[in-house]
Design a protein that fits this description.
- With 341 residues, this protein is mostly helical.
- The chain has a single domain, classed as Rhopdopsin 7-helix transmembrane proteins (Up-down Bundle), CATH 1.20.1070.
- The chain is built from 9 helices and 5 strands.
- The strands form 2 sheets. It has a 3-stranded antiparallel β-sheet with strand order 1-2-3. Strands 4-5 form a two-stranded antiparallel sheet.
- Strand 4 and strand 5 form a beta hairpin.
- Helix 1 runs antiparallel to helix 2, helix 2 runs antiparallel to helix 3 and helix 7 packs antiparallel against helix 8.
- InterPro entries: 7TM_GPCR_serpentine_rcpt_Str (IPR019428).
C-alpha cells in the first residue's frame, strides 16, 4: 500500500467518526436531559460532561486532519492546516489535540471511580456532588493540560526533526511543508555522530506513561472490585442491582473499546521508535482508530442501558405495530370480501 493512501483512509475514518460521534453524543445528551434519570445521580452529569468533551475532541480532530508517521526514531504527530497560521499557533493546536487524547481516558477512569463508589462505597458518592464534582472535572482537565503542555514544551522542533519531517511529507504524502504543523516525539539526539537519549524528551514520555498507567490501573482496580461486589450483592433491590449491572456492562465494553482503539495503539507508538522500529505510515492505524472512538463510546451506553435503548427503539416498534395492525385489517377485509363472493 502506498503511503499516500493513508490520506484517504484517515480522511474517511475522520468523516465516519465525526458523523457517528455528533449524532450519538447529541442523542445521549438529549436522553440524559429530557428523560427522568434521577436514579443515575451525579453519573448523569458525568456522562453529559463526557459527551460535551467528545464533541469538542471530534471537532478538533476534524479541524486538524492529523497524521501519525514514525521515521528516524521519531513520532511525527502531523496536522494539515486548513488556512495559514504561525508555527507557534500550529504547535499549540497540535498540543491541544494531544491533551484531548489524555482527557478522554482520564475522564474514562473517573467513570470507573464513580461506579466503584456506587457499588462498593455508596457513602463516598458525596464526593461527586456539588463542588466535588467540579473538582473531578477540573482535575481531569489539569491532567490533560499537563499532557498538552509536555507535548508543547518537551518536544521542540530541531534541525534534525525538521529535515526528517520535510522528507516524510514530500516523499510519503506529497504535501507542502508550509501547510503542515507537527509535534515531533523524538527520543534521541546526535552529538559528534553519536546518538544519545534526549533527557527532555524522556521526561515527556515518562509523564505520558505515568498518566496512562494510572488511568488504566484505576480502571482495572475499580472495575474488578465493582464486578466482585455486584456478583456478591444480596441486600440491594433488584432494580438497583439491575441498574448497576447495566452500567457495569457498559463500562466493560467501554474498557475493551478504548483498550483496543487507544491504549494498545498508543503504547505501540511510544515503544516502536524507542527500540528503533520505524513503521512509517502505519502509525496512522492509531489515527484511524482514535477517529472512531468518540462515536463508538456513546453508542455503547445507548444500547446497553435499557431505558435509553427502549426510548430509541420505541418509534420503530410503534411503526412496526401500526403496520402490523394495518396489514391484519387488510387481510381480514380481503377474507370477508372473498367469503361474500
Amino acid at each position: 500500500m502506498s503511503d499516500r493512501h493513508w490520506l484517504d483512509i484517515t480522511t474517511y475514518s475522520d468523516h465516519i467518526g465525526f458523523t457517528i460521534s455528533t449524532i450519538a453524543n447529541f442523542v445521549l445528551i438529549l436522553l440524559l436531559v429530557f428523560r427522568p434519570t434521577k436514579s443515575y445521580g451525579s453519573y448523569k452529569y458525568l456522562m453529559i460532561t463526557f459527551c460535551v468533551f467528545s464533541l469538542f475532541y471530534t471537532s478538533i480532530e476534524t479541524f486538524l486532519r492529523p497524521l501519525i508517521h514514525i521515521y528516524d526514531n521519531t513520532i511525527f504527530v502531523i496536522q494539515r492546516k486548513r488556512f495559514q497560521y504561525s508555527e507557534g499557533t500550529a504547535r499549540a493546536i497540535s498540543s491541544t489535540y494531544c491533551g484531548c487524547y489524555a482527557m478522554s481516558f482520564t475522564l474514562f477512569a473517573v467513570h470507573f471511580v464513580y461506579r466503584y463508589y456506587a457499588a462498593c462505597k455508596p457513602d463516598n458518592l458525596r464526593y461527586f456532588q456539588g463542588c466535588y464534582f467540579v473538582a473531578w472535572v477540573f482535575g481531569a482537565m489539569a491532567v490533560a493540560a499537563s499532557w498538552g503542555f509536555a507535548a508543547f514544551i518537551l518536544y521542540p522542533e530541531t534541525e534534525r526533526t525538521r529535515t526528517a519531517l520535510i522528507h516524510v511529507i514530500q516523499t510519503s504524502y506529497e504535501l507542502d511543508p508550509e501547510w503542515v504543523g507537527n509535534v515531533p516525539y523524538s527520543y534521541w539526539r546526535t552529538e559528534n555522530g553519536v546518538e544519545y537519549l534526549n533527557p527532555r524528551n524522556v521526561i515527556g514520555i515518562f509523564q505520558h506513561g505515568v498518566i496512562m498507567i494510572l488511568s488504566f490501573g484505576t480502571v482495572f482496580y475499580c472495575g474488578f472490585n465493582t464486578y466482585k461486589t455486584l456478583n456478591g450483592s444480596l441486600g440491594v433491590s433488584e432494580k438497583t442491582k439491575e441498574m448497576h449491572t447495566q452500567l457495569f456492562k457498559a463500562l466493560v465494553l467501554q474498557t475493551i473499546i478504548p483498550t483496543t482503539l487507544m491504549y494498545i495503539p498508543t503504547t505501540m507508538l511510544f515503544v516502536t521508535p524507542f527500540v528503533g522500529l520505524n513503521i512509517g505510515c502505519y502509525g496512522n492505524i492509531t489515527t484511524a482508530t482514535v477517529h472512531l472512538y468518540p462515536g463508538i463510546d456513546p453508542v455503547v451506553l445507548i444500547f446497553i442501558i435499557r431505558d435509553f435503548r427502549q426510548t430509541i427503539l420505541r418509534p420503530f416498534r410503534c411503526f412496526y405495530r401500526s403496520n402490523s395492525v394495518e396489514n391484519t385489517a387488510t387481510i381480514r377485509q380481503y377474507q370477508q370480501s372473498s367469503s361474500k363472493g
